[in-house]
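FAQ
Q: What does a multi-component entry look like?
A: The components come first, one per line:
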Amino acid sequence: MKKGMIKATGPFERVVHWCLALSCLFLCITGMGMMYHSLNFIGTIFGGMGNLKVIHNYTGIFFGVSLFFAIVMWWKEAGLFSFPEDGQWIAAAGGYLWHVDNMPEVGKYNPGQKMFFLAVALFGIAMVISGLIMWFPLSYSVEMVRWMFALHALGYVVIFAFFFVHLYLVTIGAPGSAPAMFTGWVTRGWVKVQHPKWLKEMEKDGTLVVYGEDKAAGKKRC
Amino acid sequence: MKHELVKLIDLSRCTACRGCQIACKQWNELPASKTNNFGSYQNPPDLQSNTWTLIRFQEHVDANGRLRWLFRKDGCMHCTDAGCVKVCPTAALYHTEFGSVSMHADKCIGCKECIYACPFGVPKYDAATNKISKCDLCYTRLAANQPPACVLSCPTGTLAVGTKDEMLAKAHARVKELGGDASVYGDKFVDGTHVIYVLTEKPGVYDKLPESPKVPLSIIVWKDVLKPAGLLAAGGVVAGAFLHYITHGPKTPDEETTSEGGNKL
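Then the predicted structure of the entire assembly, as tokens:
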């Protein structure tokens, strides 16, 4: 690790993130194997469509547990908007689409990240509930089960589309982001560009952890 | 090409002998299940995974206060726009060359989606095999140029099988003959069914017979809207991301702040 890197995430946070992310991606792939006849070959990989259904269902439970930890861990920081700066950020599309001169300073999570978190949290809960009802439908009313299928498909449309937004931004769209979820350490330059307000807050609160320095040294910086 | 066949059920001729119910079980090797007497000759009480056709017995008092005993042979209607075929994730349910809806039992994964897609409540789940089952209009018999077992067994002329035009002409002629509330049921919805009734009463009178059956709206939203939308949305995002990258460009920390672990102030 290079000296001067800044700690962005802890190991528990990263484990929860990857449990959620990988199970979500796996659910998308196995679910699409069942939704599109042309992708039925995905079932063949697992020994048949019957197995694919079983694997999809049990992965759903794993996803539900991961989602529970993710929501408990992140809802305060990523689930609540703070006004007016988040409103300004949204009005300017975060400066991602056109040139913006005076962007409000972004804290630990920008409103785009908050929207992504909320979409995954709300639709994730909807996916778990509708999925369980689809798994054991016989004790529920016909009309409700019918709409659960539609809800499950809607959740897939939203989460699958958001997945690609997320994938783009953490790779080539906003370089320097991905290490936050691999090693947990990011560059100071990246934090200054992406989350300047968070950097200031950490410096003020003395919670900034810089690689190669002890905590107290980090505090002296401001 | 398609050689469409239609089964006609002329309820004005049915005496509820239930020969069809037994012939179906015999030909398709469907054993009987233990049942309960619930105060009706209708037995078993509903269609089952091993009862693909059933005579429903119904006591009905008409507008003139006259008690009528209505019999209806229930079973798969073999829709052209079949909800079950639309939702089946493995293509286990499929349209045969006769227009009927048959099933590859080995492909069924017991997901039960077809149960909810069917406007007639026909597919039934069997927990022992983890599969659904339903009438296939005796596909093997049709393929051998034989009538379905139920049609063969019928002693009163209630059941007949033939080309669509032939059966529809026969049904309409019979309705004309009967007059009153009699009507042809099955040609006006889900793009036409391959089982057609001559009803002696208005359709709404019969138990478990929907007046205007259609593939449920939720199923259409699911399969005709959201299913393609999933790919369109994801594809749109990928294309949008690429456009963003080549027009607006990534959001990158500048060289000064990035160097030496970005530790410069």
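Q: Is there any commentary attached?
A: Sometimes. For this entry: Confidence is low (pLDDT under 50) at residues 218-222 of chain A.
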